[in-house]
Sequence to fold (348 residues):
Amino acid sequence: MLSRSSVTTIEKFILTQEDEHPDATGELSNLLYDIALAAKIIAGATRRAGLMDILGSASATNVQGEEQQKLDIFANDTMKRCLEHTGRICAMASEEDELLIPVPDDVKPGKYAVLFDPLDGSSNIDVNSAVGTIFSVYRRVSKSGKGDIDDLLQPGFRQVAAGYAMYGSSTMLVYTTGNGVHGFTLDPSIGEFLLSHPRMTTPRTGKYYSVNESNFGRWDRGVQTAVRGFHGDLPERIKAKNARYIGSLVADFHRNLINGGVFLYPSDTKNPNGKLRLLYECSPMAFIAEQAGGAATDGTRRILDIMPDDLHQRVPLVIGSADDVAFVTETLEKVAADPDYARTWPVA
Ligand code: FDP
Fold:
């Protein structure tokens, strides 16, 4: 057993977990080290970003039609370089690439498929706010050779691992392999991720709600009603919460995971399917949320049950403390059943 007082590197921790699965081949462990290495490289570049004059936009635009930052391109290349020659994966997909990323011809394809958002929250880079890398790992479903699209288009409940690296005041790596959520903090002086947050759990209800409220007028009445509940307008159903929104999913999710709270990116008239991507953002975060005792839904469906039909599919997301997520889904149901529900707000 690991004690909190002992210093545990991510390597030692992953090996300890592997020991609990006698049939494990060590391939998934090695894949997690590959990702941890990529995270260290990206963390280094993020820290030096201002100094190295690599801030600002590159002239490329990604498949979502968004402007890419130079660091996005660097992070994307780093993830690919750390994964493609290992022999552990059969295919990859990145939020920054339109199509499946095949393994090189000279590499024997492995048994895992990996999807990632190399630098989430990248509009925050120029202002020195936290950004992150999100990853999701599936066992391949195709039998042999290079992986195909079916290896990547899998529902979230089939993930064998998921996690994120957060490049904030310190660099953290948080991941799950379906046996709880564990957090590591990078000690830059020795270049090692050390176990700092074993068995992370999230409170059943939290003090924060996180949503881009400038979209209020574009939401449907169900979402508006739920958010007004967070303002304190439905005191008989839910206690008022504090608003916290960075606009960087990893950082907003991480804060709420630790302190309790709910993050929403609902659909609106501008983004009819929400803004966030099922495979690169919602599914991996949902796996972590559930493993920490929280929940994640698109408003009606459990995120992990959604069958993807496109690599870059977007879905609405409500994620975080279980009771707060349940409050949102119940409110959406009530408003759908009775459009006049809570139309008259209680007067204080
Ligand atoms: P960004 O556009 O800066 O990359 O999906 C990307 C994301 O950030 C999330 O990290 C963040 O939660 C969301 O978009 C913020 O969107 P809004 O600016 O519309 O609030």
